[in-house]
Design brief:
The protein has about 500 residues and is of the alpha+beta class. The protein has two domains: about 25-170; about 270-490, Phosphatase 2c, domain 1 (4-Layer Sandwich). Helices cover about 50% and strands about 20% of the residues.
Length: about 500
Amino acid sequence: MTRGRETRDQEERQFVRPHTLIPASVGGRVALAVNLLVAVAAAGFLAFDYHRESHQRLADKAASLREQAVTFHLAVAGYKGEPADRQQRFIGAVCGRMSDADSPGHHLVVEIDGRVLQSRAHHRASDELLAAVRAAADADHPEDAELIVGRHAEAGVTVYVAERMSRVRAEVRRQVVVRSAGVLAFCGLLAVAVTAVVRRVVQRPLRRLVRTIDGIAAGDYGSSAGHYAAAELARLAGAVDAMSRALAEAEGRRKAATDKARRIQHHLLPEGDRLPGLDVGVFHLAADDVAGDYYDLMPMPDGTAVVCVADVVGHGVPAAMTAAMLKVLLAEAAAAHADPGAMLGWVNRRLAAVTLPEDFATVFVARWEPAAGRLRYASAGHEPALFLPAAGPAVSLGATGTLLGIDGDSTWETGEVAVRAGDRLACWTDGLSEAHDPAGRMFGRGRVAALVEQDREAAVGEVARRVRAAVLGHAGGNAADDCTFLVVGFAGGG
């Protein structure tokens, strides 16, 4: 029924999720986390190594310059009483013999007898440089100065040996870069090894588990997750296996119950499709294993015959249970009441008392009275039936009251049409008229009626087959809702 399909659509929409990025695998996350830790550790080590190496190299350079200052002091002290020009030449000669390879960027300053002498061999002598050398020698934090200075003062002679800090730092950076290349190469190899181990120990086993669970979700109940070396994965695999076995057992029980329900429902339908004076064509399709649609053909002791088609809300086992109750109630009502409207009232009162508030049904019921040459009918909100006289236009037999199960006090009117030999009656459930094609277009009542009217000379069985093929072709071969179609040909009448 329409309401049943709308309920299913609402339930399906509850499970629709907005588009999201596919999350990374556990193995990928573990490998990323470990590699990030390795990268952070490597960066921290390199920063610490640079700081330590810089501090150590500056300390070594300062000690080396102090030793040079002591050596120069011993040499210069011998020229203390010499003329200034001779002292300058000696300082220039000593400094000139020093190569940039041995002491790159060095500068020599001597204070002797109140005079300040600077090496001129490398053309660096200036008052600014002298001020920078003295400032660096007296600095509380020598590592922040532009120069690194070794100083030795004794017996009125002070020797300064200076070198630019930038050259020392550049040398430290070169050594750290070389060391960093080795560290990064090691970290790269470690990352590859970690990724390989994570893939083997974590990712592959988890993928096996995921494939097993996906198979179970697809209906492969009873499948096993296999064996795993890790204790946690072994426990998880055991839980998956237990779940799989439980689902397999539950599925077995469900199939057995469904099979029994299918056989019970088969017994609810008429054993044959022929009644005296009537020629019947019918098809009945369930959207699930069992259906909420129901039809019946009941010969009565007084020579009349009752024809009915019912459609319970929803489909599946719950709808089939209500359909079973409806069959019993309609059979009792047909025996107790000749009037179809009174039949529906009798059924409605009892159905409303035993079903849930959300359960209801549509029913079309007709009593053929061959002696009187008439067909009396009542419709509880059902799809309009179609009465086709042998000669003349078709007549739509619409609802004569509301649905069954809504209100226990509801009543239904009874309609009547004259019946002659060759006339036909066609009735169906809304699973036909509301069948949708892949584009969402409904089959429609008009197309059902057109197929019924298309060839009134065709056998009723052929009409049923033609309607069935058209509806299933429109719906792509699958019935989304229960479908029942019944066409009755009247062979005799008044």
